[in-house]
């Protein structure tokens, strides 16, 4: 992927944040849609497997008809997408649906968003992404929000509850890896290539656990099939594409925090459509999670978006400055040179 010029970095970052937030808003409907499918006799494994297979078929068909050239990859890329499909897309999809099945849609989405902790830590190791003050504040707020949302829920610690919570935390880890794998893939390929192959390998992985072709034997309800098609087209194909487009200009750790807007959407859906009751403590926890999103918005607390991050791009040359002071020095030198050239022409 090409570099973003310094003059365009801030607008690109805003667009990236908007894309990630839009994807997360659509993901907020997964919980209520999953509950509808569970009520029609489908289990979490079958829903996950059918959802991903349908999404892959949609994405692959579109690619074959429009950009077949983007489907060419090498052996190393295939290994990357295999890991992405199994440990990212596949594990995240399956564990998240299991958490929804065994707990509530609201609790499942809150547990899912332990993902920023995993994403930021792994991104620090893999990409060298800085652990900034804004990220630290975001992580603390997210931790407080998750604790309040889980603690504010009235439930007995039965085996089913513990299993559901474990699945929810596992989905958070897998979702954190989802962003990291996506960032690696985007360094070499178009976002459509990344989405298509990650879905393809995830479909094979999930089919090994629960073959999706068993759906007709479980239900022939048109509403169940409509819900499955919606899950595949909306929260999978569309959201995955939006998320990876945003990931091109936003750090993986930041993207995982921004995507917590899904929590608010899921809580609203759970309350309005499923009648799930939310305590004041849980609502306060949701507010804390959203405050975490605000803490990592473009500009941050420093007010200098162009100088954030571990690498700073020069305005004209496109090379990298390792420190803000280097960029300021280069900019000053460049300005003086342009003034001299302007005087010569005058």
Question: Can you offer a commentary on this structure?
Answer:
The longest helix has 28 residues, at 75-102. The protein has two domains: 7-307, no CATH class; 311-346. The chain has 346 residues and is mostly helical. It contains 15 helices and two strands. Helix 1 (6-27) packs parallel to helix 13 (261-273), helix 4 (75-102) packs across helix 9 (191-209) and helix 7 (133-151) runs antiparallel to helix 14. It has helices at residues 6-27, 30-39, 44-66, 75-102, 105-112, 115-127, 133-151, 159-186, 191-209, 215-218, 222-247, 252-258, 261-273, 280-295, 324-345, and strands at 312-313, 320-321. It has a two-stranded antiparallel ribbon.
Which SSEs are present, and which pair or pack?
Elements: H1 6-27, H2 30-39, H3 44-66, H4 75-102, H5 105-112, H6 115-127, H7 133-151, H8 159-186, H9 191-209, H10 215-218, H11 222-247, H12 252-258, H13 261-273, H14 280-295, E1 312-313, E2 320-321, H15 324-345
Antiparallel strand pairs: 1-2
Helix pairs in contact: 1-11, 1-13, 2-5, 2-11, 3-4, 3-9, 3-11, 4-5, 4-8, 4-9, 5-8, 5-13, 6-8, 6-12, 7-14, 8-12, 9-11, 13-14
Strand and helix order = HHHHHHHHHHHHHHEEH
- In round numbers, the mean pLDDT is 79
Strand content: under 5%
- What Rg is obtained from the alpha carbons, in whole angstroms? 22 Å
Number of DSSP E strands: 2
Number of helices: 15
């Amino acid at each position: 992927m090409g570099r973003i010029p310094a003059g365009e970095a801030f607008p690109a970052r805003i667009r990236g944040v908007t894309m990630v937030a839009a994807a997360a808003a659509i993901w907020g409907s997964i919980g209520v849609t999953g509950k509808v499918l569970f009520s029609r006799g489908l289990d979490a494994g079958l829903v996950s497997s059918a959802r991903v297979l349908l999404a892959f078929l949609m994405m692959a068909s579109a690619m074959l008809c429009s950009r077949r050239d983007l489907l060419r990859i090498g052996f190393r890329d295939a290994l990357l997408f295999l890991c992405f499909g199994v440990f990212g897309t596949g594990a995240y999809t399956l564990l998240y649906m299991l958490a929804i099945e065994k707990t509530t849609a609201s609790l499942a989405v809150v547990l899912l968003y332990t993902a920023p902790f995993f994403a930021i830590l792994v991104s620090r190791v893999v990409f060298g992404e800085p652990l900034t003050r804004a990220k630290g504040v975001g992580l603390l707020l997210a931790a407080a929000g998750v604790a309040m949302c889980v603690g504010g829920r009235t439930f007995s610690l039965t085996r089913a509850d513990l299993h559901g919570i474990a699945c929810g935390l596992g989905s958070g880890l897998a979702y954190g890896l989802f962003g990291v794998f996506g960032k690696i893939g985007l360094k070499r390929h178009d976002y459509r290539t990344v989405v298509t192959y990650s879905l393809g390998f995830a479909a094979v992985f999930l089919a090994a656990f629960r073959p999706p072709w068993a759906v007709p034997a479980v239900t022939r309800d048109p509403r169940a099939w409509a819900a499955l098609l919606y899950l595949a087209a909306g929260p999978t194909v569309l959201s995955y594409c939006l998320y990876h487009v945003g990931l091109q200009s936003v750090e993986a750790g930041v993207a995982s925090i921004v995507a917590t807007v899904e929590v608010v959407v899921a809580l609203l859906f759970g309350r309005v459509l499923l009648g799930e009751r939310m305590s004041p403590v849980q609502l306060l926890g949701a507010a804390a999670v959203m405050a975490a999103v605000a803490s990592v918005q473009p500009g941050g607390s420093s007010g200098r978006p162009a100088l954030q991050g571990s690498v700073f791009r020069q305005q004209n040359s496109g090379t990298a400055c390792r420190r803000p002071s280097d960029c300021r020095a280069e900019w000053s030198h460049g300005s003086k040179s342009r003034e001299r050239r302007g005087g010569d022409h005058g």
